[in-house]
Design brief:
single chain; 87 residues; alpha+beta; five-stranded mixed sheet; 2 helices; 5 strands; 26% strand
């Protein structure tokens, strides 16, 4: 089984689909849930560094979020709509 890494409040995490626990992304290959002990392969976005660059423009870490499926263009648009970037 696989899980997808996501950015949450400026840090990369992995959510357990079995028990809804989460942990920081430490190793990019496998995730062992600390609660239910299930093991998953982790999928990290190929453009993680680019995502980080766009998210790090946001002054408040609580707004530095990304979930699988969001594009770089969507993140830039969110930044523009919140006054973080100019068009």
């Amino acid at each position: 089984m696989v899980v997808y890494a996501e950015a949450n409040h400026g840090r990369w995490i992995v959510n357990c689909p079995n028990c809804n626990s989460a942990d920081l992304l430490r190793v990019w290959a496998r995730f062992t849930c600390q609660e239910c002990h299930r093991i998953y392969n982790i999928i990290v976005p190929e453009n993680k560094n680019e995502i980080d660059k766009v998210l790090n423009l946001r002054p408040n870490a609580t707004n530095r979020n990304w979930t699988p499926g969001e594009t770089i263009e969507m993140l830039h648009l969110e930044n523009v709509l919140h006054g973080v970037e100019e068009i």
